[in-house]
Write the structure tokens for this entry.
Amino acid sequence: MVRNTLPDPYRDLEDTDWWHPEELSSENPVLNEEQLSQFHEDGFIVVSGLWPNDLIERASKEARVLHPPEEVIEEHQSATPMPFFASKGGTDDRGPDAALNHMTIHLRALTLVAQLMNTEEMNLRLSQSHIIAKYGAQIDKPGDPNHGHITGDQELHVDYGNNTLLVPPITTSPEAIACLCYYSDVDECGGATHFAKALPGELTSYDPKRFNPPGFNNVNGSRDHPNPRSKENIERLYEDEKPVYYKPGTCILYGLNAWHRGTPAALGKVRYTHHHVWRHRNAEWINWQSLAPKMYGMQTCYLEQLSVLQRTVLGFAAPGNSYWTKETLDAVGQRYPGMDMTPYR
Ligand SMILES: O=C(O)CCC(=O)C(=O)O
Ligand SMILES: [Fe+2]
């Protein structure tokens, strides 16, 4: 793909330039062996039919009540975490019945996520349920190089920076699964998320030389150690990324180490999405509601200088936790180059 933040960016795309969803069977919405190994190799899979159509229809309408287009246009982007409509109260309270509140704990979603995590549904815990309404606003600065472009183009990233202070282990039993579900139509609202497949073996065998931290500038490095992100890998990913061809109910299930980015919504349109993360009950350090997203932009020297006790209180796995392996010791040591990792050995 070529980055394009001007109106009508998909004009010249062909069918093969998109990721198309795999349609799940409505009687048995699970993945087959081939789809599961594809997920473990690539880091993501695009599906449709995970939630029943009538639930998606109701949830899509509710998202527009929660974030009316006129308000989103004013603010450019607005977002609400679960529970939805819970604070309205009174006879008019739709909280308990709201489809948006039922998406998150829907059994079909839990079954598929448990399948991807290679565990039982009973081991799942919710970390994130978040609605985002994104508006395609045109930059109006005559003379500026961005004049006429649309806002909302993200850099390629992985989501673990926002979800954990640690690094996801390389395993076929991931400790968390994210899911981005669309409540809009790409042909009307644009803003397809771009995803790039991992290199063969990248997500199934650990190689210390391939470490690629979530941040994309030195702000996320430590004072003494600039971010060791691999330039070649980033260039390769920008070449390989493709947009997701979505309709309401299309969703991308992805690991926290899958490379992707958001792109501008179509000019003058509001795009609605529902973002989830479910984690394994043992992975208590995955917590989108807690400190990880807030500490993401902080210099790594803060955590590097703390004691083991202090870090544990903030959400690090404690010494002796089964999280710590040769691989995670190495990866976390690379995320925090100034940290003494010996207590975790
Ligand atoms: O909204 C999207 O399409 C993707 C957003 C995203 O990747 C993020 O905010 O981390
Ligand atoms: Fe993301």
About this structure: Residues 157, 159, 260 surround fe (ii) ion (ligand 2) (CB under 6 Å). The longest strand covers residues 124-135. The mean pLDDT is 92. The longest helix spans residues 53-66.
